[in-house]
Automatic annotation (TrEMBL):
Keywords: Membrane, Nucleus, Phosphoprotein, Transmembrane, Transmembrane helix
GO cellular component annotations of the record: endoplasmic reticulum; nuclear inner membrane; nuclear periphery
GO biological process, one term: nuclear membrane organization
Superkingdom, natural source: Eukaryota
Protein name as it appears in the record: Man1/Src1-like C-terminal domain-containing protein
Organism taxonomic ancestry: Eukaryota, Viridiplantae, Streptophyta, Embryophyta, Tracheophyta
Keyword set includes Phosphoprotein: yes
Man1/Src1-like C-terminal domain: residues covered: 77-335
Transmembrane segments: 225-243
GO molecular function, a single term: chromatin binding
Organism of origin: Dioscorea zingiberensis
Keyword Transferase: no
InterPro entries per record: Heh2/Src1 (IPR044780), Man1/Src1-like_C (IPR018996), MAN1_winged_helix_dom (IPR041885)
């Protein structure tokens, strides 16, 4: 074999070996195992946690040890990182924080004490009620004050019944009292004299609400007295008019009933005398007929029989004329038989039933009188 051929065969062998190495599987020792990966991840997590905890602890320690700036010093004169500004509602001295009365320390801040504020609110409400009640009593004409001095207000605050609800330690009562005074100064009217003494007065609208119901009712009546008199007079006048209308209607209805009874009696009497041919008189004395038909309580009402007489005069079937009876002149009524159209049976029965009902309604002591003779 020539030398050139040997070189070709060698180059081909080298190329084939390099290609086989590329496409062959990598050895198992090239990548870490699963156990090694878990260990590596565990080490990374622990290292990160330690770094975070160390950073957080370092920040907390630095913040805890950072003191408060003294309240008497200006913060502009100090370095920003040297101290922490003193919070509101507190006093700082030597790096320590003390909260004012009425405030409690929460962490590195001073927050309002809710129980003291509630107590101050109750005190203010009690004072306001006292001042408004005093003014309301004065407006109702009783013993009371329009302006209540500040000294009286303070005496009320110092009473035992108000102190029992307040914890007196650490000047709590004094703080609650000052807060209550601030509250009533906003809700009540105030004035000051030349010496600086304050007086308190309840607003008029609030004083009206504190008046007793009887006082408010009486004052309302006095204020609207003229209107009430006018309305009362109008109502009384209207009631009188309605009563008169009712009486007039009742009088007219009763007079018509009596008039119908008079007609029936006169007609029956005239027919009976005509049929009997006994020569008896056909007339009837008007006063006897009146006393026979009217109830005892109706005889006092002169207008009733007068109205009946007016209806009788308008009836052409009835003659009315004077007649001398036993030496005394009487007015008699006589039915004109010739002009009669005959008795009305239905009307007569209805009137008789009405008469029976009226006689039954009279008192038991009143005895039924015998029938009065229609003629002499």
């Amino acid at each position: 074999m020539s030398t050139a051929a040997k070189k070709r065969s060698k180059s081909r062998g080298r190329n084939r070996s390099s290609m086989d190495w590329v496409f062959s599987e990598p050895p198992s020792s090239l990548f870490p195992s699963r156990e090694e990966l878990v260990k590596l991840l565990f080490v990374v997590v622990i290292a990160s946690s330690v770094a975070v905890a160390f950073r957080f602890t370092d920040g907390v320690l630095k913040r805890r040890h950072k003191p408060f700036c003294d309240s008497s010093e200006s913060f502009l004169d100090l370095e920003p990182d040297s101290c922490e500004p003193c919070p509101d509602n507190g006093h700082c001295s030597n790096g320590e924080l003390k909260c004012f009365h009425g405030y409690k320390k929460h962490g590195r801040r001073c927050l309002e004490d809710g129980s003291i504020n509630q107590t101050a609110k109750e005190l203010a409400e009690g004072l306001e009620h006292h001042v408004c009640d005093s003014y309301a009593q004065f407006l109702c004409g009783k013993a009371g004050q329009t302006w209540v001095p500040e000294a009286d207000i303070l005496n009320i605050l110092n009473e035992n019944k108000l102190k029992k609800r307040i914890d007196l330690k650490d000047g709590t009562f004094e703080f609650a009292k000052s807060k209550a005074m601030e509250n009533i100064e906003r809700s009540l009217e105030t004035r000051s004299d030349i010496f600086g003494n304050k007086d308190f007065k309840c607003p008029d609208m609030s004083a009206e609400l504190h008046k007793p119901l009887l006082c408010r009712t009486r004052q309302w009546m006095y204020k609207h007295l003229l209107h009430m008199l006018a309305v009362s007079a109008l109502l009384i006048g209207l009631m009188k008019v309605l009563w008169r209308i009712k009486e007039r209607r009742s009088l007219l209805t009763r007079a018509e009933e009596l008039y119908e009874q008079v007609c029936e009696i006169l007609e029956d009497n005239a027919t009976m005398v005509k049929n009997s041919k006994s020569g008896d008189e056909k007339w009837v004395v008007a006063s006897w007929l009146r006393d026979h038909l009217l109830l005892p309580r109706e005889r006092k009402n002169a207008k009733l029989w007068k109205k009946v007489e007016e209806l009788i005069l308008e009836d052409s079937r009835i003659s009315q004329y004077p007649k001398l009876i036993k030496g005394e002149s009487k007015i008699v009524l006589e039915w004109q038989v010739e002009g009669s159209l005959g008795p009305k049976v239905g009307r007569k029965e209805a009137l008789m039933n009405t008469e029976v009902d009226r006689h039954a309604s009279t008192s038991s002591s009143h005895k039924q009188r015998p029938n009065i003779p229609y003629q002499l």
